[in-house]
């Protein structure tokens, strides 16, 4: 049995955020605040983490800075499930220096404007990114809530934002190396 907390999510690309926001209001979901910039810094050591499906991140948003570790993903139907550990840190710059002193280096940075909603125990994140709009449904039963919002779990995106941007760069060689707003 896995003792670490697990993330259960569905991600959808090319989402009409205004339409989804209207649907969430119809379902009496609770908006957790207006959209705010989220800055994500991904670290790795010679590809060791990414090659095994793991991720190490520092996220900076309106709540402060947090370190996140995500383990390899598995899928139940279309729902992505992966171990996730997260904790707050006081200083982003010092945390980055610690990672670098341990041999980790920054491999990618990505940003998004995120607006969170809550419907029961499911968190719905409306994400505006430099490569388009996405919605994430997170929690046990996220597939049922996605269906209630008019989204088909069979069409859920399996890639994380890091992989999405790597694929985007293959098609848009003129794009900046990081997925950031310029």
Shape assignment: globular
Radius of gyration: 16 Å
CATH architecture: Beta Barrel
Helix content: 10-25%
The N- and C-terminal alpha carbons lie at a distance of 44 Å
**Number of domains as seen in the coordinates:** 1
- CATH fold type: Hypothetical Protein Pfu-838710-001
Largest sheet: 8 strands, antiparallel, barrel
- Describe the oligomeric state of these chains in a short phrase: single chain
Structural class of the helices, strands and pairings? alpha+beta
Unreliable runs: none
Count of separate DSSP helical elements: 5
Summarize the structure in words:
This protein is of the alpha+beta class and 182 residues long. The chain has one domain: Hypothetical Protein Pfu-838710-001 (Beta Barrel), CATH 2.40.320.10. It is built from five helices and ten strands, in the order βαββαββββαβββαα. It has helices at residues 17-26, 48-51, 92-101, 142-148, 161-171, and strands spanning 6-13, 30-31, 36-44, 55-61, 64-70, 74-76, 79-89, 105-119, 122-129, 132-138. An eight-stranded antiparallel beta barrel has the order 1-7-5-4-3-8-9-10. Strand 9 (122-129) and strand 10 form a beta hairpin. The longest helix has 11 residues, at 161-171. It starts with 5 loop residues before the first strand and ends in an 11-residue tail after the last helix.
In short:
The protein is of the alpha+beta class and about 180 residues long.
